[in-house]
Amino acid sequence: MQAPVIAPSILSADFARLGEEVDNVLSSGADWVHFDVMDNHYVPNLTIGPLVCEALRSHGVTAPIDVHLMVSPVDRLIGDFVEAGASCITFHPEATEHVDRSLQLVRDAGLMSGLVFNPATPLHLLDHVMDKVDIILLMSVNPGFGGQAFIPHTLDKLRAVRQRIDQSGHAIRLEVDGGVKVDNIGQIAAAGADTFVAGSAIFNARSKDDANGYDSVISQFKESIASAG
Q1: Is 215 a catalytic residue?
Q2: In the chain, fewer beta carbons within 10 Å around the N or the C end?
Q3: Which 8-state DSSP code applies to residue 175?
Q4: Distance (Å, whole) CA 45 – CA 47
Q5: Distance (Å, rounded) from C-alpha 159 to C-alpha 189?
Q6: Number of CB atoms found within 10 A of residue 176's CB
Q7: Is the pTM of this model over 0.85?
Q8: Domain count within the chain
Q9: Half-sphere exposure of residue 106, counting CA atoms within 13 Å on the CB side?
């Protein structure tokens, strides 16, 4: 299993001072910046696009930017996020007519590519693309909104994907997104995840008196992950 990665989702950040928020979570020990891109079509919400990614790069953010496309179709936005400075791009197989081609678009640009599986989406599609994915992202909530509760059967699904990854021999990250908190991240890590997206659990840790109040929760995340190993 690869070294663990904490990827705060900026969906829960204070957008009035987004650059500062991202600087703060990274200085508090976060590894990646997670982008939840929603189009009010594939999911019932509308969030951010490539201009925000480009703005953070211009702001000076050098950490990997992990773009999760909850949009349909995906190919045009893949190109836009490549140009904007993304490091990883994941998308839902239901959102593209040609999964192989969309994965290759990401790979051809030199980025990490990945597929996202909703709670009820079966895993059999992985049988045909294990050599083309760098990340498998399991949604532990139904996509579209932050702050939802973790769906428990995701743990069984994580174990199943971890087995597939280990048997494949490929260096594929297993990412989980939705309802990740201090009190369950240990279980999630024990089930096989190595990349952890958390939004409200991190950004709600801020206080009015301490804008950079993220150190404690990220430290607790890492301690729980280490204990699970």
Answers
A1: no
A2: C
A3: E
A4: 7
A5: 10
A6: 28
A7: yes
A8: 1
A9: 29
**Cα 9 from Cα 183, distance rounded (Å):** 18
User: What string of pLDDT tens digits covers the 229 residues of the chain?
Assistant: 789 999 999 999 999 999 999 999 999 999 999 999 999 988 888 999 999 999 999 999 999 999 999 999 999 999 999 999 999 999 999 999 999 999 999 999 999 999 999 999 999 999 999 999 999 999 998 866 666 788 899 999 999 999 999 999 999 999 999 899 999 999 999 999 999 999 999 998 875 445 557 998 999 999 999 999 7
Amino acid 44 reads P
177 annotated active-site: yes
Q: How wide is the angle at C-alpha 130 spanned by C-alphas 48 and 37, nearest 5°?
A: 5
DSSP 9-40: BGGGS-GGGHHHHHHHHHHTT---EEEEEEBS
Parent domain of 143 = 5-228
Separation CA 147–CA 188 (nearest Å): 17
Catalytic residue of the set 36, 39, 66, 194? 36
Q: Which CATH number characterizes residue 184's domain? A: 3.20.20.70
The active-site residue out of 39, 66, 177, 194 is: 177
Token pair recorded at residue 2: 């690869």
Residue 181 sits at the vertex; the CA angle it makes with 92 and 2, to the nearest 5 degrees, is 60
Tell me the C-alpha distance between 48 and 121, whole Å.
25
Q: Any idea what DSSP says for residue 45? A: -
